[in-house]
């Protein structure tokens, strides 16, 4: 790429070129992995799916440090003057004028420069605080972002057939006509009959499928006059490896659950990611752009947009950060802003006496959560370094707790509180508080639902090779949809690393009644029979739990689950109710392997 030096120095041009080349390499590798998702789906390479997700997590940081090393090797980068950095930024903007991912490139620029410059130089002249290049109406060179279908003489069923076949999967459908019949019936039932078609009736489908775990999702919407109807169609493999439609999701809120941060990220082959986000926003208007970028695997961009939204919210609100309600943790200090639906977590400098770990171990646990399939049961977190907050917005109790329990993680400078490292996640009602509230109101139906959900969460995490470790009620939260999600990660382990044992019989009655442990216990030994002691103190809770989840208190459940995992059997976790699946109609549909 040739560029005129013009009024700027040659060094500024060369640095700008290195920065854009570094980003382009990153996004090329990112797209290669996403493009490979189609092949992995076609081949049923489920272990490869999980490997690709884990490897992709590292891509961004690897490319940032790679770019920094190149800059340091080719330039005296730490000693550039202010004028040169300003020139680098202006020249970088010029390189983005015809770029297909300008917003991502700006974030990459910030990531590199903030690791080179001292914090006092983080200001608007050198950084992209707001986007410099608009992403509105960006078009790709590789064809349309979405395909439009107009219903012809073959009718809606014929159009559905064309939509499915246009994805050109190298694997046949088991019973395509049957699946189309199911989909047509579901649509008709949802709309209470097919509405009259307006002259502009069309169906728009995003060109790339959304791949996650063992499914490919077709995402689109139908437009009929002033009305739009979103849909998502999961495509799976049956027991013989042929494709079938599992259901069609037609409620926007159900489609939104596909993009929940408690689930694994999608693999989507996108030349222009902003256009995919804009399309998704037309069917999910209440889903923040930041979360959509994150769910598309573009976590750094999502974090950038999230923090911009947070700063905007702080500017237009007046409440103060307070300690989060619930039992205080031994490892994490947690505070929240009442007007903002998130909690902020900081690793303490000194842990409770029962916690034998260090800060590095806790950070590894949080990274592990990003790399595994969260199956809708673990909250995702956004990780930030050197985050600046207005000091005046903190309640004195929060400041006192920070200075007392995590002094190494904070710094006060010019009326700003700088937090060196923190995690941010969606706020939920702690399960222990939820159960207490249900008990006070005597809402036994809601209590039973929460306890069933709690057991289901533990069960599904185990099947996904995750042992929560600390399973106290306070470490789980209840979402606004009534789903129970785990959010305390300092003791999680892989199921296959644990040793689930039965408590051996005591040698005599006196030993059994002594309260002392009479058997050897290794660090990774777990005795499921003990769970009841610290979980089921309430007679009401115990009765409900034993009715639905008694097997979780036996070593057999955990050992059998380990055997399945070690045998390579990957469970299916559906982000929609079993009742919506077409195989519930009792016809010859096959349940996926």
Give a structural overview:
- The protein contains 18 helices and 19 strands.
- The chain is of the alpha+beta class and 593 residues long.
- Strands 1, 2, 3, 4, 5 and 6 form a six-stranded antiparallel beta sheet that branches. Strands 7, 8, 9, 10, 11 and 12 form a six-stranded antiparallel beta sheet that branches. A three-stranded antiparallel beta sheet has the order 13-15-16.
- Strand 8 and strand 9 (342-347) form a beta hairpin.
- The chain starts with 9 loop residues before the first helix and ends in a 27-residue tail after the last helix.
- 34% of the residues are buried.
Question: Roughly what percent helix?
Answer: 40-55%
> How many runs of DSSP E, i.e. beta strands?
19
User: Major sheet: size, sense and barrel closure?
Assistant: 6 strands, antiparallel
Estimated share of beta-strand residues: 15-25%
Q: N-to-C terminal Cα separation, in Å?
A: 50 Å
Silhouette: globular
Low-confidence stretches: 1-7, 585-593
Q: Roughly what is the average pLDDT, rounded to an integer? A: 89
Structure annotation, total helices: 18
State Rg. Answer: 26 Å
Query: Structural class, from secondary structure content?
Result: alpha+beta
Short description:
This protein is an alpha+beta fold and 593 residues long.
Name the features.
593 residues, alpha+beta, 6-stranded antiparallel sheet, 18 helices, disordered N terminus, disordered C terminus
Indicate the topology.
Blueprint lengths: L9 H34 L2 H29 L7 H14 L6 H15 L29 E4 L5 H11 L10 H15 L11 E5 L3 E3 L2 E10 L2 E11 L5 E3 L6 H7 L14 H11 L5 H7 L3 H17 L6 E2 L8 E5 L5 E6 L11 H13 L10 E9 L5 H10 L4 E4 L2 E11 L2 E2 H11 L2 H20 L2 E2 L8 E3 L5 E3 L6 E2 L4 E2 L8 H5 L11 E2 L4 H5 L3 H11 L5 H12 L27
Parallel strand pairs: 18-19
Antiparallel strand pairs: 1-2, 2-4, 3-4, 4-5, 5-6, 7-8, 8-9, 9-12, 10-12, 11-12, 13-15, 14-17, 15-16
Helix pairs in contact: 1-2, 1-3, 1-4, 2-4, 5-6, 9-10, 13-14, 14-17
